[in-house]
């Protein structure tokens, strides 16, 4: 069995008998134990090796002879013995504890198909070659963060919404590696709401997986899956350790998805993005442009919305802004097309009657400033659909503003106000009934940094919802939450 | 009686002064020097440029050599003076570094445990930049900017 080691490498050379392998390596560092690698394949992570045959790369072949990496192919589905001796792993030039941790994590994850995917990603990305073959190539960095929370929600006039719950709101595992001085890659694995496939709770997703070419600060190009630059918060909306919020401004918050479809407000994914800045005195002119998939575009109603059909349209978007040491301001826009009623209305109707391929434009504005310990940030988002029918008005608007103050470098307190207005179109015989939904959420909270890695948070929000049609439940609610955010 | 009260006041003032001195961050020199490896292609740097380096906006010197940014881990008067000069508190800078790190956009500066370590690392690493008390500066590094320290 031959495996492309770029995807399936594992350094479990020490798995079966770590001490023996390390003894061998220590004794015969200059000998070749396995097949000689062809010179033309002498690139990190691109070797193909037969299963079960360990290979030691001759130190003379390595640009940095201080590292000796031993490859054997991974057992992709089951590794029978994962006991790795830390010192043994160290002696073969890898971070022993890291190998143990990744392998252990991988095995814990292999319980179903989802877990297998995660495990393969973790192993493939976390334990690659340690050979430093390119100038500027770094070791792989694996880190992450989590936020565990407790919520209590009470509703003034709808007891169905009264709830309390503990949850690991978010767990992100991040992998980063500089491939050369100019190329680097980054993977962001996102687990939400105590993800467990066998308990049917939470969700798992590859939030980002990209490679970036950095020419200079003028131009950077990312290829792969990424969170695009849209306003200030979109790109960092999941980075809980740098946000004071437990509940993010409502269009950024997955917890409120029953009220708000966040896909409509924000571009969720892009697949190619160019960005950078140009200095202008003390100021910097930021720019970003990207393409991606339109959400919810699908020409086959039987399949339901797939969100991957770019036959007739792409998501196109970008942001321009100006930045100074104490403030930044920017304008963002996207254009894509959506299908509203594909698969809902009969296929015999024309696409325009089924509201397919409707042009959607998102416009955004963001503003932030910092003055000593005081900070303020605010955003505006407008979503407009060009459906050609005045009856079918589903435009949307959102605003938030947050004023914060940092006490003694540790305690950040803020007050914030979120406002959202949605136009709704409800199908009725002979046309549509229009309606409006607004929600106003004044809220506030504190974030206390115990140290560089741990932050305790607390927040309170009061939501005031108004509907102009009767068959949607309404009611004000209060939302209390506490959380701990940990960077590891 | 009055004399006794006067003495008590004096004693309390002395205690307060001692306590204040004990809790104040020590600064043993009047100046902080921003230092760099002699190979860097600049001989002076202004505050905005320095902030660009420490915030990760600029990652290479003009000649293409990667910038290795060094920071002092323990809290000290030198560190306070440096960040005050940058116009950002230490926690604000940490927040910027964390945001870069979690977005895959960059790494935080390499934290060193002492100014001596910073000096040694800057002297031995092409492209490195750091800051130390000016009294420690040697010929193995170049000074890019001198930051006066307000006396405590």
Q: How does the SSE layout of this entry go?
A:
The complex is a heterodimer of chains A (488) and B (152).
Chain A: E1 2-4, H1 5-8, E2 9-10, H2 18-27, E3 48-50, E4 55-56, E5 70-73, H3 86-91, H4 96-109, H5 113-126, E6 141-155, E7 163-178, E8 183-196, E9 201-214, E10 220-226, H6 262-265, E11 270-280, E12 283-292, E13 315-323, E14 327-338, E15 358-371, E16 374-386, E17 396-407, E18 411-428, E19 431-449, E20 454-467, E21 477-487
Helix pairs in contact in A: 4-5
Chain B: H1 2-23, E1 31-36, H2 47-55, E2 68-72, H3 77-86, H4 90-103, E3 110-112, H5 115-124, E4 128-133, E5 142-148
Parallel strand pairs in B: 2-3, 2-4
Antiparallel strand pairs in B: 1-4, 1-5
Description of the molecule:
The complex is a heterodimer of chains A (488) and B (152). Chain A is mainly β and 488 residues long. Chain A has helices at 5-8, 18-27, 86-91, 96-109, 113-126, 262-265, and strands spanning 2-4, 9-10, 48-50, 55-56, 70-73, 141-155, 163-178, 183-196, 201-214, 220-226, 270-280, 283-292, 315-323, 327-338, 358-371, 374-386, 396-407, 411-428, 431-449, 454-467, 477-487. Chain A has two domains: 2-126, no CATH class; 143-164 and 227-487, Porin (Beta Barrel). Helices cover 11% and strands 46% of the residues of chain A. Chain A has a 16-stranded antiparallel beta barrel. A three-stranded antiparallel β-sheet of chain A has the order 2-5-4. In chain A, helix 4 runs antiparallel to helix 5 (113-126). The model of chain A is unreliable at 1-100 and 126-132 (pLDDT under 50). With 152 residues, chain B is of the alpha/beta class. Chain B has a single domain, classed as Periplasmic binding protein-like II (D-Maltodextrin-Binding Protein, domain 2, 3-Layer(aba) Sandwich). Chain B has a five-stranded mixed β-sheet with strand order 3-2-4-1-5, with helices on both faces. Residues 20-27 of chain B have low confidence and may be disordered. Chains A and B meet through strand 6, strand 7, strand 8 and strand 9 of A and helix 4 of B.
């Amino acid at each position: 069995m031959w495996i492309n080691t770029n995807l399936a490498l594992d350094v479990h050379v020490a798995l079966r008998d770590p001490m023996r392998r390390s003894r061998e390596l220590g004794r015969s560092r200059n000998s070749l134990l396995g097949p000689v690698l062809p010179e033309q394949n002498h690139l990190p992570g691109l070797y193909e090796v037969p299963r079960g045959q360990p290979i030691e790369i001759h130190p003379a072949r390595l640009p940095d002879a201080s590292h000796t990496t031993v490859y054997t192919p991974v057992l992709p589905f089951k590794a029978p013995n994962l006991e790795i001796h830390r010192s043994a792993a160290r002696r073969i030039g890898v971070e022993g504890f890291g190998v143990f941790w990744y392998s252990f994590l991988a095995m814990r994850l292999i319980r179903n198909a989802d877990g297998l995917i995660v495990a393969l990603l973790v192993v493939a990305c976390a334990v690659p070659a340690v050979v430093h073959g390119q100038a500027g190539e770094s070791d792989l960095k694996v880190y992450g963060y989590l936020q565990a929370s407790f919520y209590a929600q009470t509703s003034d006039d709808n007891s169905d919404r009264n709830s309390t719950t503990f949850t690991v709101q978010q767990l992100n595992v991040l992998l980063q590696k500089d491939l050369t001085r100019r190329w680097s890659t980054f993977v962001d694995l996102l687990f939400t709401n105590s993800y467990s496939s066998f308990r049917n709770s939470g969700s798992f997703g590859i939030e980002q997986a990209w490679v970036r070419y950095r020419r200079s600060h003028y131009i950077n190009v990312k290829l792969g899956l990424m969170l695009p630059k849209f306003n200030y918060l979109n790109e960092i909306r999941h980075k809980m350790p740098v946000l004071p919020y437990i509940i993010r401004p409502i269009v950024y918050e997955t917890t409120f998805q029953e009220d708000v479809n966040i896909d409509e407000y924000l571009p969720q994914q892009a697949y190619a993005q160019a960005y950078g800045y140009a200095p202008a005195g003390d100021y910097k002119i930021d720019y970003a442009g990207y393409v991606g998939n339109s959400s919810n575009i699908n020409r086959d109603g039987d399949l339901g919305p797939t969100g991957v059909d770019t036959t007739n349209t792409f998501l196109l978007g970008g942001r321009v802004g100006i930045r100074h040491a104490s403030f930044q301001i920017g304008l963002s826009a996207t254009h894509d097309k959506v299908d509203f009623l594909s698969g809902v209305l009969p296929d015999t109707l024309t696409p325009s009657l089924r509201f397919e391929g409707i042009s959607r434009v998102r416009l955004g504005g963001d503003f932030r400033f910092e003055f000593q310990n005081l900070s303020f940030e605010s955003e505006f988002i407008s979503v407009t659909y060009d459906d050609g029918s005045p009856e079918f008005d589903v435009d949307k608007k959102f605003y938030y503003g947050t004023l914060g103050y940092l006490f003694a470098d540790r305690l950040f307190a803020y007050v914030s106000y979120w406002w959202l207005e949605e136009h709704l179109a409800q199908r009725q015989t002979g046309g549509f009934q229009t309606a409006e939904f607004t929600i106003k959420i004044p809220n506030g909270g504190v974030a206390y940094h115990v140290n560089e890695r741990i932050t305790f948070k607390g927040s309170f929000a009061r939501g005031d919802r108004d509907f102009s049609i009767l068959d949607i439940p309404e009611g004000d609610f209060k939302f209390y939450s506490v959380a701990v955010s940990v960077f590891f | 009686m009055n004399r006794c009260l006067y003495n008590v006041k004096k004693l309390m003032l002395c205690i307060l002064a001692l306590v204040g001195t004990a809790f104040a961050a020590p600064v043993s020199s009047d100046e902080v020097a921003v230092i760099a490896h002699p190979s860097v292609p600049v001989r002076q740097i202004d505050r905005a440029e320095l902030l660009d380096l420490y915030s990760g906006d600029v990652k290479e010197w003009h000649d293409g050599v990667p910038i290795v940014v060094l920071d002092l881990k323990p809290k000290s008067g030198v560190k306070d003076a440096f960040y005050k000069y940058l116009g950002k508190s230490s926690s604000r800078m940490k927040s910027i570094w964390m945001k870069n790190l979690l977005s895959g956009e960059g790494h935080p500066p390499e934290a060193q445990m002492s100014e001596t370590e910073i000096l040694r690392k800057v002297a031995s690493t092409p492209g490195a930049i750091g800051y130390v008390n000016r009294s420690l500066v040697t010929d193995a590094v170049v000074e890019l900017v001198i930051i006066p320290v307000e006396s405590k």
